[in-house]
Amino acid sequence: MAPEESWEVNGTSTTPSTAEKLLVHHKENHFTAGEVVRDVILGVSDGLTVPFALAAGLSGANAPSSLILTAGLAEVAAGAISMGLGGYLAAKSEADHYMRELKREQEEIVTVPDIEAAEIGEILAQYGLEPHEYSPVVNALRNNPQAWLDFMMKFELGLEKPDPKRALQSALTIALSYVVGGLVPLLPYVFIPIAQKAMLTSIGVTLAALLFFGYVKGQFTGNYPLSSAVQTAFIGALASAAAYAMAKVIQST
Amino acid sequence: MAPEESWEVNGTSTTPSTAEKLLVHHKENHFTAGEVVRDVILGVSDGLTVPFALAAGLSGANAPSSLILTAGLAEVAAGAISMGLGGYLAAKSEADHYMRELKREQEEIVTVPDIEAAEIGEILAQYGLEPHEYSPVVNALRNNPQAWLDFMMKFELGLEKPDPKRALQSALTIALSYVVGGLVPLLPYVFIPIAQKAMLTSIGVTLAALLFFGYVKGQFTGNYPLSSAVQTAFIGALASAAAYAMAKVIQST
Questions:
Q1: Transmembrane residues, as ranges (chains A, B) (predicted)?
Q2: Chain B neighbors of A140, CB-CB under 8 A
Q3: pTM of the model
């Protein structure tokens, strides 16, 4: 077996296996949120907030529990479909967009390679690299069309290849999360026929849910959990105050 | 003035100014949607759909126009705040996240430069580049800490530096768009006291708005406008059908 090719890095000799060892043993602590977690957060966030605010607003307008439930659950159904189906179609569109950009880039590599090669240089020059430093990269890519294409998609266009299964999974996750989130503030109205009383319970459980959920969200997204909890609860409070005020105003006209 | 340094690219001699001329004269036709347009689309999309569905659902439950308006406008207020304020805080969080990752990366460049340098190699090796081809890039970056940092942020972490003004602008755009979108299906209920009649008008104007808006959305996002128009209208139709059905079910129990 041939000895490993080593290269000079700032006067120190290193080899690929040494580099790899450095990478494996050093675990950088960068946070990456799972896509499912993100979708759950998205769905539950909205589900906890808007149905809660709507129910609180209608309670303020002295509507009976049955009507509040009607409006609330109708909104949850509509919201879940809007978010879920809307998200699904948006993801599909993104996938189509990616394929079109890929095809275009592929054509340009074949028809105007000098321009594409110049673009590689332009991208790398932004990092202070001189032509004699990046030209080996340009040449290597020119001789490897697949890698060249990947490089342009990522570094010129900033596009990642979307996973086709993700669109459906994402839509279902968001829609289901929205329903679960929406049921939290609405269930009190199922069990407590007097709307004003149900509203107090709804406020209590929803506030608790918003604080808890905001805290969890903060942990998953790498932001300060306490701050996230307070912010999430605050949005819910403000949204319901606005809904309450709006309902009072309409009722008085 | 010294003559421009030229370099060999696959046997052809080229210079930076030639490359630049190639780039300027060749206009690649890649689509990029403005952030404001994206926010308007986001806000109006939801604003047209959920308030419309809620109003249609409550009409199906034989609620009077006044109550439908109460519920609808309360929902618009709550939804606008949820989307707007939620979006603002999310953008702020992203900005904080970026700053924390930037700081961490900066530290790592100072404390463990060999590992960071190995990472540059790992990133470039994914594009089929050999060590002797990418080592000039690694060395150049090692000698230019600012460029090195930018390179890692973009190519390792895929993070773009967020614009601080964008968070507020984005939130206001989304919230305002949601309100405008929501008013379209609700205004008929202001002028037509009999809910069932108002609903027919609401369906008519909202369907037209969904088709038109979906078409415009398709043009801006680079997707087929007709397909986008039909999809947008379909989501609205499905959401309102679900809300209508849900309202009927609740009313009958």
A1: 67-91, 171-192, 198-216, 228-247
A2: 127-130, 133
A3: 0.78
